[in-house]
Amino acid sequence: MQEMIQSILSNIALILFMHLCLDAIVINKEKFTRFLFSYAMISVVSITVILIFYLPITFGGYQFDLRLIPLAIFAFKWGWKNGLSALLITSLWRLGIGGEGAVPGVIFGMILPVCTALLFRNMRFSNGYSSFFIIISTAWLLSDIPIIFILPDGWAIFEKIALIRFSSFNLTAFMLYVFIRNTEREIDLKKKLEYLAERDPLTGLYNIRYFKEKVETIKHSYTKSYIVMIDIDHFKVINDTYGHLSGDCILKNVSTVITTETSKHKNIKCMIGRYGGEEFILYIAVNAEYELVELVEAMREKVQAMTFNTEGMTPIKLTISIGVSEMIGDTSLKKVIGQADQSLYQSKRNGRNQITIYSPNNEKSE
């Protein structure tokens, strides 16, 4: 009994160590290429299963192990490409070890459990423990088919070892589920914190701090790029007349228009942020200036043509004023933003609802 418990604990320890390794890989996913990420994940699972082969659990003269748990859960969580790759590697290894139980062990203890997990995944079962329990219990029953129908006195043997197999399989699956859920919660929390650190909570656009950081990292990657400042005309009147909730509603709708228009120009690199108040800031990289003018003019025309609704569903018309400045040479981002801001206010002084491109000599209106 002591030896059996030690073997079960050894299997569980390997599986939990596998999770820790997968956890580290997933958390640092951005450091891997797509190929290396999959390769690392498949390698960890395959090595774990191969090691489990050499740590059999002996009970009542019958040997088994927990190989199907990492294979089935890996396939369920990470899909058929990763799951079948790990299955292929470990199946070939098991067949290479040989023995009269090799073929049934591969078919019923590995292939069928993985196929079961992929079936449940395709049926879009939830990630809750109930799914883990059903998958592992089904896989366990499938893996015991050779015992019941092939071995002499198979049903008697099944009755003898069923409880210990069922208990060890589902205890391990439960522990693995708890660890996986904790990791997923940590990753979700990390993503939420990163989002809140990078984004304006009202519009979902980049906040000005993160926008500036991103532009600083890419501004030398393009030969022709611009900073664009956009301001909603007479926005104070909207706030004073319809209230700040309506102002927030207008800001979100205008940001959606800007985002939608930029997404239509696939050949243009564009980054959008909220500068503050009713102002938006864009970094736009183009091949020629006319592409920039076409894009910002499309934004201006779209806003002018649309009817926006206040919080109380009152329809109103809007216009925007736009200022543009080109990023030339080693000119600092702060200076270029200042130039675009000057151009924006030139557009306002000239009557609003227009575009002004900054010129060192003159500010010219488009």
Task: Give the helices and strands, then pairings.
Blueprint: H1 2-27, H2 34-53, E1 57-59, E2 62-64, H3 68-97, H4 102-122, H5 129-143, H6 145-149, H7 154-198, E3 206-207, H8 208-218, E4 225-232, H9 235-242, H10 244-263, E5 269-276, E6 279-285, H11 289-305, E7 307-309, E8 315-317, E9 320-327, H12 333-349, E10 355-357, E11 364-365
Parallel strand pairs: 3-5, 9-10
Antiparallel strand pairs: 1-2, 4-6, 4-9, 5-6, 7-8, 10-11
Helix pairs in contact: 1-2, 1-7, 2-3, 3-4, 3-5, 4-5, 5-7, 9-10, 10-11
Give a concise summary.
This protein is α+β, with helices and mostly antiparallel strands. The protein has 12 helices and 11 strands.
Task: Give a structural overview.
The chain is α+β, with helices and mostly antiparallel strands. The chain contains twelve helices and eleven strands. The protein has helices at 2-27, 34-53, 68-97, 102-122, 129-143, 145-149, 154-198, 208-218, 235-242, 244-263, 289-305, 333-349, and strands at 57-59, 62-64, 206-207, 225-232, 269-276, 279-285, 307-309, 315-317, 320-327, 355-357, 364-365. It has a seven-stranded mixed β-sheet, sandwiched between helices. Strand 1 (57-59) and strand 2 form a beta hairpin. 33% of the residues are buried.
